[in-house]
């Protein structure tokens, strides 16, 4: 209940965020993203949840987004998350039953309702996140989760070879970085690139550094993308990137994954962030 109780006046929120009170008022009027409650004397009082939302917006602006883009991004994520609560029941039922055919049918139905990009960039990442939540909540076992992730990995792998490549597009090489145990986010990102018409060579994991250099020499990609989901591995991944960069300085390198959020080569975790960083 305390998260929904107004308790911070505008001066306190201004100090927390480093944003002038006048700017906060302007955001409220122009973008209507929050509606602070009013005290008996008519002063704004912000809830914990509203302060957290404002912190997210400020963080997005520091990443280079405009206020309008940041608000739209967060509203879209919130809408998708709420909608998923109602719609993921059939996904969960299929996973609990180890019913690969039912799960494939559910996915095919969703592809008939939404654009491929919407399913790949919004619904599938939410589904992967929900698998972890369902396991922690006792709705699934690790066997159920791995069953679903294996099917999703297979589905995305097939999609990488399905969509056409724009003849003039650059080649991107996707390689799972050292010590990484979760390739799914990189696979999702690679399918996003393919949907944009890019030629994507997805190599996966456990590739020796010398073999990475050999592949780059053969393919001559414009981009190399890798992943780090564990912050404790970012130092090792950074060393790997430096090694690759020293030998092939003409290749642009990008990082995804929660463990890389503070790395200078991090390109984001949403479609909007990827489009902005990569200019596509």
From TrEMBL:
The keyword Transmembrane does not apply. Keywords: Coiled coil, DNA-binding, Transcription, Transcription regulation. Residues 7-57 form the HTH merR-type domain. SUPFAM superfamilies: Putative DNA-binding domain. GO terms for molecular function: DNA binding; DNA-binding transcription factor activity. It comes from the Bacteria. Residues 67-94 form a coiled coil. InterPro entries: DNA-bd_dom_put_sf, MerR-type_HTH_dom, MerR_fam. Gene3D superfamilies: 1.10.1660.10, Cobalamin-binding domain. CDD domains: HTH_MlrA-CarA (cd01104). PANTHER family: HTH-TYPE TRANSCRIPTIONAL REGULATOR MLRA-RELATED, REDOX-CYCLING DRUG-SENSING TRANSCRIPTIONAL ACTIVATOR SOXR. This is DNA-binding transcriptional MerR regulator.
């Amino acid at each position: 209940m305390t998260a929904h109780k107004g308790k911070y006046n505008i001066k306190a929120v201004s100090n927390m965020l480093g944003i002038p009170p006048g700017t906060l008022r302007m955001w409220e009027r122009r973008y209507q993203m929050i509606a602070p409650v009013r005290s008996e004397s008519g002063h704004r009082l912000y809830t914990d949840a509203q302060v957290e939302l404002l912190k997210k917006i400020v963080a997005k602006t520091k990443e280079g987004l405009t206020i309008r883009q940041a608000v739209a991004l967060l509203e879209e994520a919130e809408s998708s998350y709420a909608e998923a609560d109602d719609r993921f029941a059939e996904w969960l039922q299929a996973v609990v039953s180890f019913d690969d055919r039912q799960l494939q049918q559910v996915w095919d139905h969703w592809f008939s309702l939404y654009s491929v990009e919407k399913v790949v960039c919004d619904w599938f990442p939410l589904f992967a996140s929900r698998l972890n939540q369902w396991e922690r909540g006792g709705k699934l076992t690790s066997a159920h989760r791995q069953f679903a992730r294996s099917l999703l990995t297979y589905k995305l792998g097939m999609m990488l070879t399905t969509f056409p490549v724009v003849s003039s597009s650059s080649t991107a090489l996707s390689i799972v970085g050292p010590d990484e145990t979760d390739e799914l986010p990189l696979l999702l990102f690679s399918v996003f690139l393919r949907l944009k018409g890019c030629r994507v060579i997805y190599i996966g994991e456990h590739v020796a550094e010398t073999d990475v250099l050999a592949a780059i020499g053969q393919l001559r990609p414009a981009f190399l993308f890798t992943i780090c989901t564990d912050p404790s591995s970012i130092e090792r991944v950074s060393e790997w990137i430096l090694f690759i960069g020293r030998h092939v300085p003409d290749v642009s390198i990008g990082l995804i994954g929660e463990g890389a959020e503070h790395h200078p080569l991090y390109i984001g975790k949403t479609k909007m962030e990827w489009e902005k960083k990569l200019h596509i």
